[in-house]
Amino acid sequence: MRALLRGVLLVVPLLAAACGPIVEPVVLVPCPSGTCWDLSEGTWLVVNDAPSPAWLEAREIHAWRVPTVPGRRYLVLTRVFSGSADTYVSPSPIIDPWTHTMVDVRSETGLAFTATTGAAFIAVADRGRDARTVYSVRVASYDERLDPLPGTTTLAVNGAPAPRGLASGEIARFVFDAWRGADYTIRIRVDRGAVETFASLVPSVDDDLYDLAGADGTIPFRATETGRYYVAVIDRGGAAGSELTIQVTSP
After folding, report:
1. Is there a contact between 141 and 70 (Cβ–Cβ < 8 Å)?
2. Which of 48, 67, 179, 224 has the highest local Cβ count within 10 Å?
3. From first to last of its 251 residues, what are the pLDDT tens digits of the chain?
4. Are 205 and 128 members of one domain?
């Protein structure tokens, strides 16, 4: 993969990381700071997909890219589980990290942007600590309506409660159809263990991307638009997992 651009041709091969594309030093064109990154060969992400896990060794940089539609809004979310990293987003594959303005420092808040081209380019850069950085990255958009993620269960409104068992840390995903202006209630009954429940208009809903949540397992809401609504139930029961039933009702 190409990356570090100075003003003279320089190729330094690096070992590929097991989980992500590394931005390698190569050469290209002069940059204002004297060093630029080429993200054009980054790994493709799918909009509204589940997070893609990866890790960075000290001072490594990973390149990612995602297809976009001009005029649509997108959100880039990098969740850091250990270590520290910054996230850079650009409509151009060549960026100067020293002057680039779209940066999520320490990857704590995410980056929202309106697409102007057919792709966006993402760099996740370790902050130079000795230990590796473990993270995940994803791109979400409320302007795109994609199919449910694999394994998503369809629920019928006012249908019988659906039973589900969860292994430790497992996420169960559900989807149902709603009508704008109608009232709905998502009901979770936990028979064993503990869970958290989240809901959203995007299929990749979970605990870092959601519109609705209910601490007691009950989420009442009025649909803001007609279409699919997605639910994620996440096990918090520890090693033993959880057992539950889920139901969606509407008066």
Report:
1. no
2. 48
3. 334 333 222 222 333 334 556 665 444 456 777 789 999 999 999 999 999 999 999 999 999 999 999 999 999 999 999 999 999 999 999 999 999 999 999 999 999 999 999 999 999 999 977 788 999 999 999 999 899 999 999 999 999 999 999 999 999 999 999 999 999 999 999 999 999 999 999 999 999 999 999 878 899 999 999 999 999 999 999 899 999 999 999 99
4. no
Pairwise CA distance, residues 245 & 123, whole Å? 41
Q: Are residue 116 and residue 164 in the same domain, yes or no?
A: no
Q: Within this chain, do residues 118 and 76 fall inside the same structural domain, yes or no?
A: yes
Q: Sign of dihedral through CA atoms 144, 147, 151, 153?
A: positive
Residue 66 falls inside a structural domain? yes
Range of the domain at 216: 153-249
Global confidence as pTM: 0.83
Same domain for 85 and 122, yes or no, is yes
Among 110, 140, 170, residue at a domain's last position: 140
β-sheet bridge partners, residue 81: none
Q: What DSSP line would sit under the chain, residue for residue?
A: ---BB-SS------PPPSSS-B--B------TTS-BEE-TTPEE--TTPPPEEEEE-TT-EEEEEEE--TT-EEEEEEEEEES-EEEEEESSSEE-TTT---EEGGG-S-EEEE--SSEEEEEEEE-S-SS-EEEEEEEE-TT---PPPTTPEE--TT-PPEEEEE-TT-EEEEEEEE-TT-EEEEEEEEEES-EEEEEESSTT-BTTB-SEE-TTSEEEEE-SSSEEEEEEEEE-SGGG-EEEEEEEE--
